[in-house]
Amino acid sequence: xxxxxxxxxxxxxxxxxxxxxxxxxxxxxxxxxxxxxxxxxxxxxxxxxxxxxxxxxxxxxxxxxxxxxxxxxxxxxxxxxxxxxxxxxxxxxxxxxxxxxxxxxxxxxxxxxxxxxxxxxxxxxxxxxxxxxxxxxxxxxxxxxxxxxxxxxxxxxxxxxxxxxxxxxxxxxxxxxxxxxxxxxxxxxxxxxxxxxxxxxxxxxxxxxxxxxxxxxxxxxxxxxxxxxxxxxxxxxxxxxxxxxxxxxxxxxxxxxxxxxxxxxxxxxxxxxxxxxxxxxxxxxxxxxxxxxxxxxxxxxxxxxxxxxxxxxxxxxxxxxxxxxxxxxxxxxxxxxxxxxxxxxxxxxxxxxxxxxxxxxxxxxxxxxxxxxxxxxxxxxxxxxxxxxxxx
Length: 392
Known about the structure:
The chain folds into 3 domains: 1-138, 3-Layer(aba) Sandwich (MutS, DNA mismatch repair protein, domain I), CATH 3.40.1170; 164-219, 5' to 3' exonuclease, C-terminal subdomain (DNA polymerase, domain 1); 236-333, DNA polymerase, Y-family, little finger domain (Dna Ligase, domain 1). Helices cover 38% and strands 24% of the residues. The chain has 15 helices and 14 strands. The protein has helices at residues 11-19, 56-62, 73-88, 110-113, 116-124, 141-150, 163-167, 179-187, 193-199, 201-208, 210-219, 249-264, 302-315, 344-363, 381-384; strands at residues 3-7, 28-34, 37-43, 67-70, 94-98, 101-105, 134-138, 156-158, 236-246, 273-282, 288-299, 322-333, 369-373, 385-389. Helix 6 (141-150) links the parallel strand 7 (134-138) and strand 8. It is globular and about 70 Å long.
C-alpha cells in the first residue's frame, strides 16, 4: 500500500502568521488555556528549548522577549478542514491524524493524473500559500511520516529502500511513544532507530512488552496500520460578509435568515431535511466563533430552521462584533415524509431509531449500548454477557 503523508510543521503558528504577517520575524508562542493552566500549543520554527505541551512559565524562562498569542483552535480546525476537503477531491482515501498532518492513499492515482510527479503536485497544490507543506511517500504510514519530516518545505521525499537504512539515523524522540519510554531508551543507550533495530525484538519486548515490539517494527520501517478513510460528510454552505463588524443581534438574525433562504433554495437540498446547523464567524480582534445547533427533529424549510436558530442566538449570542457569517447544514436526510404505524411496538421502535439518529448527529457517535449474551453457560461472569453498541 503506497501512502503519502502531508505534513505542515508548526501549523497553528503558520495560521497566525497568515492572519498577522507582522509575526513572521518575531519569536512567538501559541498559548493554550485550560482553566488556570496555560501550556504551549505551538511556537515559531527554530525556537529551541520549548515544545508543545510545556507549561507556559517554563517556556518563558527559556525564551525571553517572546510574543504570546492565544490559541484559536476553532480557526485552526476550520482552516485544516478546508485542506482535508481539497485532499478528498484528489484521493478517495484520506485519513486525518491531527492538525497539520494527513495520510493519503496513492494506489491507482498515477494513471489518473499522468504520473507520480503529477500526483505529488496535485496533493501539494491543495495547501494554500504560506504553509510550506512537506510530503513523504512510503509503503506504510509511519515511514511516510518520517519521510515528510525529512523533506524540504514545499517538496516531497520518498523513503528509499531499504527503509531500515533510510530511518537508521533518526532519533528515538520521534517515536510515537510516551516521553518516559523515550527517556528509558536513552538510559539504555538507544538514541537512534538504528540502535533499536540492532538490539533485536527479544530484549525490547522483555523491557517494554508489546510496546517494545511496536518500536522495533517502526524502527525497521514496518507499519501494518491501515489507512482509516475520513468519513464523507455531505453539507451545503452559504456565507456573507458584513459591511462593518456588527454586534447587533437583530442584524445577525436577519443575516441568518438570508443565508437559510439561500441554502433551502438550492437544488441539491430541495425535498431533503437537515439535522444540524453550524454557524461560524470571525470575531473582530478575537478568535473564530463557532456554534453548532442540532434540531430536535430534522427540518426541511427555512421558517422552521430560522425559528430554532433565532432562539439559540438569543440564548447565547456571539462574544463580539462579527466580521462575517457562514452557515452550514449537515446530516442531510431524505426523509421527506414518514408513514406512522398504528402498531404500538413498531411506533416505539421508530421513535427509538429517530432518537438514536438525533444523538449521532449531535454527539458524532452512537452513545447507546445494549447487553447481549455471549456465553451464558460460562462459569466466569464476565464472559456470559457483553456490552455492544446498539445498532437499530
